């Protein structure tokens, strides 16, 4: 029986993790759950999975959650950053699945590694912000970091086909998002509802917007750099609108090994949970003849500048990727709130990366300070952009 703590249980990945745990209840047990603000769903999950500890995002929600749970839970509810860190380090957990969205995932994930837990990582922002520190901690504490992000799970699987020194390049596939074929003048006017409608995946709001700007692919490039210890020159991106080929590894002899499958996050989640075993999930099978055709095209860096920006930040190094991430979180929120337009997102992020003072990514405090500064500057940029377009 593998005991799992799950951070971000009420989200899209969190609920898929629980679906896999429910299906394989003879193999997995949930010992800790944490969520942000969805008290009702968290309470329902606690009643079903009976974890030992539970955490909710803000202190004012603790009483509301307690009211929905048996008295036996009242001393076992925590909150905020400390709550997440507590769930991430509880002695009963062998594995921590990090499925929260955004920078809030960094500290509990680092704590979990330092507490010797294997990690199932969906929260890509952790590696974008602090990939160097995280991978050093993984090596030092001899834990496994298993990717849940579909592309990284695909690469992880394709890497099993050869030796590390024989890898030439890794190639991330990108769906291209809902605006793949849209003219630049139309992109300016797209609404949050249009941007949230991903063609292939049903995901949380932030990552859906990131997919639409292609920032998601940029974040995934940085994630891949750290997870697989490759340089930015060794990472390619190809647009593949069907999301059937989840990513590829090119070896030095020219062989290209890919992982394919239907777009269902339970597949990479189950692989991370049960690695190296594979579980019979009973999902519908990929039928290539029904797919008919699989298309591939180059990404358009002019219409989707966020992807180029992410490569640039990766090459700059230091805290540049952490600033990119923080500015993007602010800009995405501002777009969803109707304060800036869709094409302003990458503009706000680019301006912020140039204005913030950058530091050393070997220093956790420098990363956290860069994140803090970037949020302030990005908010200013949002105000300036919003005022300019009013
Ligand atoms: N969805 C997908 O298919 C994929 C997602 N990912 C990555 O996985 C991560 C999660 O994405 P997704 O599930 O889509 O996002 P969602 O927005 O659906 O879920 C986010 C989760 O984080 C929780 N949360 C937010 N703030 C806090 C906090 N302070 N403390 C504890 N929990 C918090 C939310 O709680 P609440 O809802 O209660 O507020 C929710 O459970 C992201 O990093 C994303 O990039 C990667 C690949 C695919
Ligand atoms: C399911 C998953 O891993 C997402 O990151 C997904 O890949 C987003 O799709 P695109 O960013 O390729 O549009
Ligand atoms: Mn992905």
TrEMBL record:
InterPro entries: DXP_reductoisomerase, DXP_reductoisomerase_C, DXP_reductoisomerase_N, DXPR_C, DXPR_C_sf, NAD(P)-bd_dom_sf. Residues 260-375 form the DXP reductoisomerase C-terminal domain. Its cofactor is Mg(2+); Mn(2+). Residues 145-228 form the 1-deoxy-D-xylulose 5-phosphate reductoisomerase C-terminal domain. Residues 4-131 form the 1-deoxy-D-xylulose 5-phosphate reductoisomerase N-terminal domain. NADPH binds at residues 10-13, 36, 38, 123, 125, 204. One of its GO terms (biological process) is isopentenyl diphosphate biosynthetic process, methylerythritol 4-phosphate pathway involved in terpenoid biosynthetic process. Mn(2+) binds at residues 149, 151, 220. Keywords: Isoprene biosynthesis, Magnesium, Manganese, Metal-binding, NADP, Oxidoreductase. It catalyses: 2-C-methyl-D-erythritol 4-phosphate + NADP(+) = 1-deoxy-D-xylulose 5-phosphate + NADPH + H(+). The keyword Nucleotide-binding does not apply. Its EC number is 1.1.1.267. Pathway: Isoprenoid biosynthesis; isopentenyl diphosphate biosynthesis via DXP pathway; isopentenyl diphosphate from 1-deoxy-D-xylulose 5-phosphate: step 1/6. Catalyzes the NADPH-dependent rearrangement and reduction of 1-deoxy-D-xylulose-5-phosphate (DXP) to 2-C-methyl-D-erythritol 4-phosphate (MEP). This is 1-deoxy-D-xylulose 5-phosphate reductoisomerase. The lineage of its organism: Bacteria, Pseudomonadati, Thermodesulfobacteriota, Desulfobulbia, Desulfobulbales. The gene is dxr.
